[in-house]
Amino acid sequence: MNGMLLGVLTEPGINVGNHPRFTLFGLEMNQDTVLSTLVAGGILIGLALWMRFHITDGVPSKLQLMFEGLVKFIEDLVEEGMGIRTAPFAVPLAVTLFAFILLANWLEVVPTDHVLIAPTSDINLPAALAVLVLGWVHLFGIRKKGLIGYAKHFMGAPYWLIPFRFIEEVAKPLSLALRLFGNLFAGGLMIALIGLLPIYAIAPTEVVWKLFGMFIGLIQALIFSLLTIVYFSGAASEEAH
User: Fold this and answer.
1) pTM of model > 0.85
2) Parent domain of 42
3) Of the ranges 129-143, 153-167, 178-192, 193-207, which is most confident?
4) What is the count of structural domains for the chain?
């Protein structure tokens, strides 16, 4: 079975973890990941600017309705978890993460002959987002409670749990990044595998899989933003672990 899978993955056109690269300021970067990330970010900024200049108190556009519904949903979650006044930045952060990750995930379904990929299928982007979120969470906790007060979350009684608390904190960014990366990488791999099917079977199979992939991309974007709120809520909590 392993030999068969290895044979499939080495077929022409299926490059697992291989990316065209370029060097910038001495750093080697994945070209398709950087390009796709910029495209997703550009689309998000473009939509935000378009909505900003077309927002109305009258009959709203579909985009405005979708955005207002998303913001209300996130606001309710933040208010329930820690109170908007406690962390007012959590709403725009979670909304932005959801919208950006969703657009990044859905780039995979655009037929660009692998010029654009889902940048979240490259571990570098999910890892960067996870480190950003968890770093911000710890800074928020320290600012709210002070360094000593926040440290009590990890160093307080029962003391035998201290190693496990640190393991939990290390596992948070790993699980946050790997969950997003794993699902999107598998989706891209499946699309590549479908391309090896007979020509008469490709079109219907690819359509069904891309629709399913868009659903998975939506769920993963939602999970990432929800976990962001949960982590900030934990850092704002007055209770120790």
Assistant:
1) no
2) 32-236
3) 129-143
4) 1
Q: Is the pLDDT of residue 131 over 90?
A: yes
Please say if the pLDDT value at position 133 is more than 90: yes
Round to whole Å and give the CA distance between 83 and 100. Answer: 24
The alpha carbon torsion through 119, 120, 125, 130 (nearest 10 deg) reads 160
pLDDT score recorded for residue 116: 82
- 170 within domain boundaries: yes
Residue bearing the bigger pLDDT, 5 or 167? 167
pLDDT at 130: 93
State the CB neighbour count (10 A cutoff) for residue 162. 14
Q: What is the pLDDT of residues 95-118, one digit of tens each?
A: 999 999 999 988 887 777 777 888
pLDDT for 127 equals: 92
Query: Is residue 3 situated within a structural domain?
Result: no
In a domain, 93, yes or no: yes
- Domain membership of residue 1 (yes or no) is no
Query: Is 98 in contact with 225 (CB distance < 8 Å)?
Result: yes
